[in-house]
Specification:
100 residues
């Protein structure tokens, strides 16, 4: 019984984290340089999603860029590496790519 309660709680935490992408983006300071619908320092999330629409490797590529940083794709200002786990980077990538 106790084991099933712990498993349920763990599942809810994981599901909640996956759905909390706007909050995760704020918590990880992504919103300092990005916005959903306008360029700040970096491109708008909608522009990123539009550029990668139809690309089957987009999620993995964006996950890697979120984690390791990137340079040159959107101009001269580099995006520094982010202090995120692999799971957080994947959650953020899915959320960014879902913006329309």
């Amino acid at each position: 019984m106790q084991k099933s309660i712990l498993l349920t709680c763990a599942f809810l935490l994981i599901a909640g984290a996956a759905q909390a992408s706007p909050e995760l983006a704020k918590a990880k300071n992504c919103m300092t340089c990005h916005a959903i619908d306008k360029k700040i320092v970096g491109p708008a999330y909608k522009d990123i999603a539009a550029k990668r629409a139809g690309d089957k490797t987009a999620e993995a590529a964006l996950t890697a860029k979120i984690k390791a940083g990137s340079k040159g794709e959107w101009g001269q200002v580099p995006m520094p590496p982010n202090n995120v786990t692999d799971a957080e980077a994947a959650t953020l990538a899915k959320w960014v790519l879902s913006q329309k």
